[in-house]
Design brief:
Rossmann fold; Heat Shock Protein 90; five-stranded antiparallel sheet; 10 helices; 40% helix; kinase activity
Length: 323
């Protein structure tokens, strides 16, 4: 693989031999080329690949997938930071990173599964213009059929084993794929007794009310801090750009605390909403554009509808901290 540009492949495998037939050549090609090679895999596949690579396995960094794939936004941020740190050599020249990354799909809800599918599509935008390589294994023996079908729409290439690849003829532009995900998101929450109106000079009241709500649910202190910081950022954005007032709706279920921020919409729309708001790491030198990225890093899931007639941002926070 010597061609320039970012490469994102899916490896659908139905046996250990199929997995190694795609993953081992991918790793060895990287080692021969002098790439940094990272393998984020299920423990069983770490063992398989370690044995297949033999002595060269010590040149690969192995990480358990369960320790890496906690939440889509933080996983994307972690990969971005990893590649940024290792993306240059000692002389400052560009250096390639090659990753075998196996997302964790088991035990996900429909909402979580859709978020991870969106993540796989966004990877193509986040690393466009780089020379990095990413191979995503999918175990067809255990994964839901819908997840397996999605790979052809989120990965431009399919790995065939022994280093062979073929373009995916069903690959979807990330903007189109994310729009489909947006259309499937749940609608606005109905009004309820835990609604908190907000407006200018009311952010302190919102923070206090949210902190009390989380404390009553037994949410850990650090998670409560993250929740308050993220919701405050969204509320401030709504006040600035969404007509100056709105409502924070608080709900909870067994897994999540749900915080929905709705505003009345701007009378005169200001700056157009950028594509993929908050999904992609901002330029560190930029003065603006960091808020929604930080919000996504602090929350576990987030859905949004930005509209001049009224925007809705719904944040989900696990009751226990996730990576």
């Amino acid at each position: 693989m010597t061609r320039p540009g970012f490469v994102h492949q899916a490896l659908c495998y139905g046996s250990d031999e199929d997995f190694l037939g795609g993953a081992a050549p991918f790793a060895l090609d990287g080692l021969h080329a002098g790439d940094t090679v990272l393998a984020v895999l299920a423990p069983r596949n770490i063992g398989l690949l370690t044995r297949a690579l033999g002595r060269r396995s010590c040149e690969v960094e192995f990480v358990r997938a369960g320790d890496w794939y906690g939440c889509p936004s933080r996983t994307l941020g972690r990969y971005h930071a990893y590649c940024a740190e290792r993306g240059t050599d000692g002389a400052g020249r560009p250096s390639r990173v090659r990753i075998i990354g196996e997302p964790v799909w088991q035990g996900r809800t429909e909402l979580e599964t859709r978020a991870w599918m969106r993540y796989e599509s966004l990877v193509n935008v986040a690393f466009a213009g780089t020379g990095h390589r990413l191979l995503c294994p999918y175990d067809t023996r255990v994964l839901p059929a819908a997840v397996v079908r999605s790979v052809t729409r989120t990965h431009p290439e399919l790995a065939l084993g022994a280093g062979g690849t073929t373009p995916s003829d069903r690959y979807a532009d990330p903007a189109d794929f994310c729009a489909e995900c947006d259309a499937a998101e749940p609608g606005e929450l109905p009004a309820g007794r835990d609604d908190i109106p907000f407006g200018r000079d009311r952010s302190a009241h919102v923070r206090h009310a949210l902190r009390s709500y989380a404390r009553a649910l037994g949410v850990p202190e650090q998670r409560t801090h993250d929740m308050v910081a993220a919701v405050h950022e969204v509320v401030v954005n709504s006040v600035r750009h969404g007509g100056g007032r709105g409502v924070l709706r608080l709900r909870n279920d067994r897994e999540y605390v749900i915080c929905e921020v709705c505003d009345i919409g701007a009378v005169k729309p200001t700056t157009p909403v950028p594509p993929f708001p908050g999904h992609l790491p901002p330029d560190r030198r930029a003065v603006r554009g960091h808020g929604m990225w930080v919000v996504r890093q602090l929350s576990d899931l987030l859905t949004e509808t930005f509209d001049p007639a009224g925007s809705v941002v719904r944040l989900y926070f696990k009751r226990a901290v996730t990576v």
